[in-house]
Structures are given as structure tokens and as C-alpha cells.
Amino acid sequence: MTPSALDPRGHGADVIAQLWWVLLALCTLVALITLAALVYAALRPRPNWQRPTAEQDRGPTRAIVYAGIVGPVIILAGLFVYVLSALGALSVPADSPYSIVVTGYQWWWDVRYRFPNQADGFRTANELRIPVGRRVRVDLESFDVIHSFWVPQLHGKIDLIPGRKNEIWLQANEPGVYRGQCAEFCGLQHTRMAFHVVALEPAEFDAWLMQQRRPAPEPRTAAEQHGRVTYESHGCAICHAIQGTTSRGIVAPDLTHVASRMYLAAGTIPTTRGHMAGWISDPQHVKPGVNMPRVPLDPDELNNLVTWLLTLR
Asked: Is 80 within a domain?
């Protein structure tokens, strides 16, 4: 099911949806009144032409003044006040126990969790997890071109502009998975630049935070050990990072807990063994134009690499 801004599941989306319905009702009312006036003017009897007296001329003049000036001024003034109150409700909170920094790339999302006065933040990709019922600040940046961050069921959309920082906040009223999308055309794979916001109960979210702060587990089997060697010897570590290893790349998604994510390639394919193997062996087939090169691996190397990556939870 396609996510809809008219199916709000968070406070910000509630405010926007309510504003939309108010504007729709008001515009519909004005359109109906205007249509009724046109129908009346077209169908009313036309008397023989004669110049109206001053007394007869006052009625139409009053109608023009009230319907064309006074009425619109009152309606627009009230609407202005209402919109200002809605904008106030959508303002970003000044304080937060942590913040999320989202950077848009062609065509994926880098996600960094930062904590005040702490150096143990972490990175993930294409997936944000937030606690239910809490406002979470999201700082937005772009690495290359203009992107647009939009989670229709949680909040409005906002652009990521190179060289400028924007901000928004997210709050989910109930647990669930909410799809987000880049809403600004940004290149060949714009439509496959999705992300997901996973809203968890606070206790479950805290447990997830602790898990994400841990480094990648050490290989336990021979296949996993060979998989790690394959990763380190075929250039993967140049672009990707895995905490707990010497891999410190920053231009591609952090893979420390890649197996815990629901999707690969920014929402393009699910995180399963077959899809992961296909993505590594031929990324251009899955997502044409992506910056990830094809990695030449024999079947045993590919199998071992996928085996090891699937332990990174």
C-alpha cells in the first residue's frame, strides 16, 4: 500500500492533514458559492433596460463590497492565523537526548546517530529507528545534488541542499514501519532512493541503540573467516566501514549491522541471502547507474562473503 499524507500516524502529519482538510473545505465552500452566484446571474429574469436609480444601485454595490472585499479579508485573516499556529506546531524542538543526521547521496541515505557529550554514536543506512511517542530531531544534509526527505505518514517534506543544513522532526504515534522517499528528482535512480522509519516501543528502541553501538562480531566459522578475508582483499573496505575492523570507508553505507536492516540498495531489494549475493555480484543489474562497481568473485568467495555479512546483525 502506498503511504499517504492523508493517513497520518504521527503528530506532524496530523497537523498537515488537518490543514489540508480545512483548506479543501474552505476552497470547496468558496467554489460552491461562486458557482451559485454565476448560475443565479445567468438564470435570473432580465428587466427592460433602464438606468438604475441611486437607491436601486446600492444593493449590488453592497454585495460587491461584502462578498468581494470584507468576506475575503475575514476569511484570509482567519486562515493566516490558523496557518501560523500550524507552522508553530511543526517547529523543530530545541533539545533532544540525541539527534539523527541524514545525508543524501545518489542514491542512498547515510544515517548517523549522535549523542550529546558522547563519542559513541554510530552509522547506519537507508533506515531510521525512532521511539514511539517521542519527537526526534533529524538534521539533513546533501553530499551531491538536491534531494528531498519525505515520510508522508509522519511529517511533511523538506529539501536537502548541498552546502546548507536543514532540519525536521519525526514522531510516530504507534509502532510500525513507515516508508519514506526522496521527493526531488536527483538522477537516474531517483525512484529507487527510498528509506524506512521503524517506530519501536521505547524499551525495544533502547535495546536497539545498545546493539547498534557494538562492533561487528568476530567470525566464528571457517566460511565466515574466509568471507571477511574476501571483503578486505577485494577493495570493499575502501568505500564501506565496519566497526571493529580496519574498514573505515565513508562514501558508501556502513555495513556494521547490515544484516539487521530490512532492505538493501535504498529499499530496492529485501535483505536475503539471494538478493545480497545478486547485489554484490552485479549491482548494475539491480540498480543501473549506481556507484557500486561489480566485484569479480568466484562462487566460493561470493558464498563465504555473503555468509559473513549475514552475521553482521
From this structure: no
With a CB cutoff of 8 Å and minimum separation 6, the contacts of 138 are 99, 100, 101, 102, 128, 149, 167, 168, 169, 170
Q: pLDDT grade, residue 56 (50/70/90)?
A: low
Q: Domain check: are 240 and 290 in the same one? A: yes
SS3 78: helix
Residue 133, C-alpha cell as written in the block? 511517542
User: Is there a single domain that holds both residue 180 and residue 142?
Assistant: yes
In the chain, how many domains are there? 2
d(CA 161, CA 166): 8
Q: d(Cα 153, Cα 234) in Å, to the nearest integer? A: 41
CA dihedral 210, 214, 216, 222 (to 10 degrees): -90
**pLDDT number for residue 52:** 59
**pTM here?**
0.84
Backbone angles phi, psi at 163, to 5 degrees: 80, 0
Same domain for 230 and 275, yes or no, is yes
pLDDT of residue 294: 87
d(CA 100, CA 136): 8
Separation between Cα atoms, residue 97 and residue 36, nearest integer Å: 56
Task: Report yes or no on 97 lying in a domain.
Answer: yes
Query: If you average pLDDT over every residue of the chain, what do you get?
Result: 87
